[in-house]
Write a structure and sequence with these properties.
oxidoreductase, EC 1.-.-.-, about 30% helix, four-stranded mixed beta sheet, 13 helices, FAD-dependent oxidoreductase
Amino acid sequence: MLKPFTAFSKSIPLDDSWEVIVVGGGPAGCAAAAAAAREGARTLLIEGTGALGGMGTSGLVPAWCPFSDKEKLIYQGMGQRVMETLKSQMPHVKPEMVDWVPIDAEKLKVVYDELVTGYGAAVLFHTMLSAVETDEDGRVTGIIVTNKSGLTAFQAKVYVDCTGDADLAAWAGGEYSKGDAQGSLQPATHCFILGNVDEYAYLNGPNLHNQNKQSPIYEIAQSGEYPLIPDAHLCNNLVAPRATGFNAGHIWEVDHTDPWNTSQAMIRGRAMAQQYRDALAKHHPRAFANSYVASTGALMGIRETRRILGDYMLTLEDYLNRQSFPDEICRNNYYIDIHFTEEEAKALLEGKLVEKQRSFRYGPGESHGIPYGCLTPKGLANVLVAGRSISCERAVQGSVRVMPVCLATGEAAGLAAAMTATTAAADVHAVDVSVLRSRLKEAGAYLPDQS
């Protein structure tokens, strides 16, 4: 238990020149900042690392989750633009590919830089949210950040929380849930890239993905030779010439709101990457004998922490009913993807658990709506939330947490923030959703007309 310490006994510099401040520069934050600036709002994007893009760049996730419902693109607008712009710069990716498209992280960093700054938003890197100030009416009156300049206060009319962990909303006093009923969280994954891979052998050899029961990952995980490879989870893509990206393995009991805990997970993740290289070099030598660990993620792959309590909570029943909403700001069709507990992963490896019994997948053309009320935290007047911490039940969070959905909710939140900033009340709960939906459609979003 830490001792109390009184801080901020002296004044700190204040920058109150912004209308919209977005905290967190992952997919949701990039789309939010770009959308707000596109509407003419003076917009600042604050990011804790030195690059935009979050898990797709600093986290080294090797592929986008699907952008289509098997019939058409449903994550359109700004999300489609980001994916298509990156894809056009990757010659080995087929132009017609829209599902599980590989990601070149370095190229994607520049795509996000140009998207955000191209609309006129300012970006402040290596800057961490440190405190949130509120008044008695549930209005954020300022935030305090930390960087090489020390402590600085910022004020805006509207704030968009794209931290992934709902830090701003939670620190402002917003209600939230976290994990399951016992507080358990989905496992984390530390992504990595292996370089000097024999491309021909990789592309024409055995399918390494865990859905292929003949993948060498099963022999690797069952051998006992690699104690840091705990299960058969092994997503992988050719992300650049002779470079294979891996979203592989799990690290359990990681709570990203606990920095000590996350620090230990990062150390373990880097050691795991080396074991994966050694295991693949032995069990698939044609492709990986001369490979090496080229890079490990600067971010841990976190699947869940806090979920805000919004004006509306998206439920599993909504998902199963393919529900539409009059105030929906995007559609989603990604499957319910809750990763296994350590005990379940062991049972799966031993053939005692069937993976498809744990997930639900839509058929072609099927999707559900995400209402605007999932982005508006109860009790907070001038805060919006986008990304994986929107208001939803835990099962649904296993679907809406992925990057295409984050891009879509981010674009809607940024546009709503800009609309709110033009009003005297600056109340995100009072946005005219018909205007918001109309403007999103004009910008290219996929929003079918409501019957």
